[in-house]
């Protein structure tokens, strides 16, 4: 008899993709390691999940607005219909395959977070140390089972051992999205630069915090939500710009009032670095228009769909360098994130906890209290939420 555990899921047969929304709490069998049935289990672990973060992409899944093909195709190839959701986690290793200690130095009792991209290790990019662009990767909670469950099975090669004494566990659950911002900021040198962050949701806010920490001379936070801009200021933005609805011919057109303000704040030059963290077509065009000749545009927020970039030749004429960011550099990004988070003197971890997480007030949701209504209310109110999985 297998014991059952609680998990947040979607079942394409029971719930349907188009017909349902949100995450559905279910009892599922507790995962086990069985090396004789599956040799890959020798390099996997069972993690008792303590905390799990709600990513921007999870919000997209909640509204069935992202990754539909990846869910459908991956489940079809696995011959099943239920997917455990979620990919940002921290917990404790409670069982380890026979090769885990020897291969990865990880053992039972270790507190661990881990990268959500399970890479192949064999392709050209993986072999060249560029696993973030592995051509044969799976993503936890999308194309393989994720971590919104009391116990989960994860490949040990994805794990990053954490220390709850240095970084509080709720923040450890955010290594993965914080790492997105670390990775984005590593694309160009922001020391002494003027940096505009378009979109101050969770990863945009992390980017504001990090741009300031990494030595940007002026950080400008830009968003449609005044509450997010207040947080951006508290995290170190020197200036903020509220995006107000403008009369435009097309949705994708630039927000001219925003560009005018950026130009004013940069003495007519434009910013050295624009970071696209919102995902709107207009936001991409805002980034290009707000960046100085010879500057850098870093794209991260974009999800599915086609984009229109009028007068694309501006990219060439202005000599703009475009960077596209996916995932994290494994594990270089994790090492930098750990150093930034675990240095008590720099205030970064405290700002994440006090400003973005409101000191845990209403932003930590016990799995036992999960309901669609509660989560939707909290998603409207806060940029970042974390589940307390064992409570
Ligand atoms: Zn994520
Ligand atoms: Zn690969």
What do the pLDDT scores average to?
Answer: 96
Please tally the helical runs, counting DSSP H or I stretches of 4 or more residues. 14
Q: Any idea of the CATH class of the largest domain?
A: Alpha Beta
Q: Mind telling me the C-alpha Rg?
A: 21 Å
Task: Report the principal-axis shape.
Answer: globular
The largest β sheet comes out as:
7 strands, mixed
Number of domains: 2
Report the β-strand fraction as a percent range: 15-25%
**What's the architecture of the largest domain in CATH terms?**
Alpha-Beta Complex
CATH level-3 fold name of the largest domain = Quinone Oxidoreductase, Chain A, domain 1
Detail the poorly predicted runs.
none
Q: What do you see in this structure?
A:
Helix 11 links the parallel strand 15 and strand 16. The longest helix has 12 residues, at 202-213. The strands form 4 sheets. Strands 3, 5, 6, 9, 10, 17 and 18 form a 7-stranded mixed beta sheet that branches. This protein has a 6-stranded parallel beta sheet with strand order 13-12-11-14-15-16, sandwiched between helices. It has helices spanning 56-62, 68-78, 100-104, 124-127, 169-172, 175-185, 202-213, 226-234, 256-265, 281-290, 314-317, 332-342, 348-356, 372-381, and strands at 4-11, 24-29, 44-54, 82-84, 88-96, 111-114, 117-118, 138-139, 151-155, 159-161, 194-198, 218-223, 239-242, 271-276, 291-299, 321-324, 364-366, 385-388. The protein is α/β, with parallel strands linked by helices. Helix 6 (175-185) crosses helix 7, helix 6 packs across helix 12 and helix 7 (202-213) packs antiparallel against helix 13. The protein has 2 domains: 4-161 and 357-388, Alpha-Beta Complex (Quinone Oxidoreductase, Chain A, domain 1), CATH 3.90.180.10; 180-324, Rossmann fold (3-Layer(aba) Sandwich), CATH 3.40.50.720. The chain has 14 helices and 18 strands. Helix content is 30%, strand content 24%. It starts with a strand and ends with a strand. Bound molecules: zinc ion (2 copies). One zinc ion binds next to helix 6. Its cofactor is Zn(2+). It holds the Pfam family ADH_N. Belongs to the zinc-containing alcohol dehydrogenase family.
């Amino acid at each position: 008899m297998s014991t059952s555990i609680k998990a947040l899921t979607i079942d394409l047969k029971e719930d349907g993709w188009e017909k349902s929304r949100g995450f559905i709490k279910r009892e599922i069998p507790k995962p086990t390691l069985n090396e004789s049935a599956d040799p890959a289990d020798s390099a996997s672990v069972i993690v008792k999940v303590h905390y799990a973060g709600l990513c921007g992409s999870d919000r997209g899944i909640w509204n069935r607005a992202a990754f539909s093909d990846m869910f459908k195709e991956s489940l079809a190839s696995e011959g099943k219909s239920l997917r455990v959701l979620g990919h940002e986690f921290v917990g404790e290793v409670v069982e380890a395959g026979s090769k885990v200690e020897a291969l990865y130095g990880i053992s039972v009792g270790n507190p661990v977070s881990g990268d959500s991209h399970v890479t192949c290790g064999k392709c050209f990019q993986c072999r060249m140390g560029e696993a973030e662009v592995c051509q044969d990767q799976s993503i936890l909670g999308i194309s393989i089972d994720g971590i919104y469950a009391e116990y989960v099975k994860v490949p040990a090669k994805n794990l990053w051992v954490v220390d709850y004494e240095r970084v509080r566990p709720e923040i450890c659950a955010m290594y993965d999205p914080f790492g997105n911002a670390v990775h984005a900021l590593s694309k160009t040198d922001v020391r002494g630069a003027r940096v505009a962050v378009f979109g101050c949701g969770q990863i945009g806010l992390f980017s504001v915090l990090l741009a300031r920490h990494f030595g940007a001379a002026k950080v400008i936070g830009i968003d449609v939500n005044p509450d997010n801009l207040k947080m951006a200021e508290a995290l170190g933005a020197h200036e903020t710009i509220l995006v107000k609805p403008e009369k435009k011919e097309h949705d994708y057109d630039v927000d001219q009032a925003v560009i005018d303000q950026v130009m004013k704040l940069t003495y007519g030059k434009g910013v050295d670095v624009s970071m696209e963290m919102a995902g709107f077509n207009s936001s991409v065009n805002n980034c290009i228009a707000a960046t100085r000749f010879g500057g850098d545009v870093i794209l991260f927020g974009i999800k599915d769909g086609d984009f229109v970039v009028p007068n694309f030749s501006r990219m060439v004429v202005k000599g703009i360098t475009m960077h596209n960011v996916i995932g994290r550099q494994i594990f270089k990004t994790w090492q930098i994130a750990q150093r930034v988070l675990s240095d008590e003197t720099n205030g970064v971890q405290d700002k994440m906890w006090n400003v973005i997480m409101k000191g845990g007030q209403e932003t930590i949701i016990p799995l036992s209290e999960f309901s669609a209504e509660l989560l939707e209310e909290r998603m409207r109110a806060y940029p970042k939420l974390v589940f307390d999985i064992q409570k």
